[in-house]
Amino acid sequence: xxxxxxMFEEADPFATWWxxxxxxxxxxxxTVRTLMxxxxxxxxxxxxxxxxxxxxxxxxxxxxxxxALAGRGGRIILACRNLKAGERAAGIIKRELGCRTPxxxxxxxxxPADRYFVEARYLDLCSLRxxxxxxxxxxxxxxxxxxxxxxxxxxxANTHVPTEDGFERHSQVNxxxxxxxxxxxxxxxxRSEQGRIVFVSAHAHQAAKIDFxxxxxxxxxxxxxxxxxxxxxxxxxVLLATRWLARELKGTAxxxxxxxxxxxxxTRHFRNSPLMSSICVKAVTYPWMWLFMKNPYEGAQCAIRLxxxxxxxxxxxxxxxxCEIVQSSEPGQDKExxxxxxxxxxxxxxxVTKLTVDKELPLEMExxxxxxxxxxxxxxxxxxxxxxxxxxxxxxxxxxxVE
Length: 403
Description:
The protein is α/β, with parallel strands linked by helices. It contains 12 helices and 10 strands. Among the domains are: 242 residues, NAD(P)-binding Rossmann-like Domain (Rossmann fold), CATH 3.40.50.720; 29 residues, no CATH class. A hairpin with a 2-residue loop joins strand 7 and strand 8.
């Protein structure tokens, strides 16, 4: 032991290049990691008592978004397909925020976590009927909705197994269902002092293939799509719909933008990825994923800024990356393509879900949406039917009061 200590004491770090090389390597790794982590949300603005809907909020990026917005005073609704995971996430958020909040006076609740409103609601984006039911519940319970963040999505899903509504899974979960939910909640978003809609797109939209005559990709050739192509197509649709919906909402207090979180590790999106195919592949790819990909907290920052920054109050129809407006792909800027996709989407949803959009008023004026049950709604339970009727009645009563 004494001999080993003597060797360290007499060692000359400048007698070899290895310490210098090691220091440079560590410096490069830290620099790359810092650059790849992206920008942080540049504000800490509060959104006290604003009602926020976050889809896919039970894990990954959605969890980080929900936790950040709850910490800023928002009333958070986690829209999750796995309700148990959503309830568990809601409990974790309230517990962690409560641990950071000191008890100010003995008269207040013993548990600071009780000051935070975070709850989970069931929403399955693979079912348009579930989207209708979820929207009906929210409209019956709340007078307004302030922020909707469409974070949930799928990648590497089986493109040959359609949803119960007959659509390709990436197309419905990543685009059609969020689009429908947005349309259904628009009346309540307009009641907000400053409603905000945030869609989560992806860098992958730049590689999307899209047919101008069939931008929604419901043609027979759609089955030839690989999962990567289907994912890219769905994210381009999100971007295009954001562009045109912003035009539709011109003159209202509602803004709509989309963002890319970047390449993010640590989410369930990779559970079907080839990178997760075996232990050997994981062992090789994990170090590189750690170096070049963001963690969920870093990936959530752009959406957090879009939901909270007052400087973006008048910004709408834009594409964000690392908390800044950036250029999208050329198809993502095509206004005619955006209009074509938007109109085809409306027609498709009208035929499948009986959603009606009254276009007699000018685009600047408020459109009226009528919630009707999907064609197969007769299969719903009596309880669900009563809930939908109650929601419609509440919505009509509130609209009468507003007018």
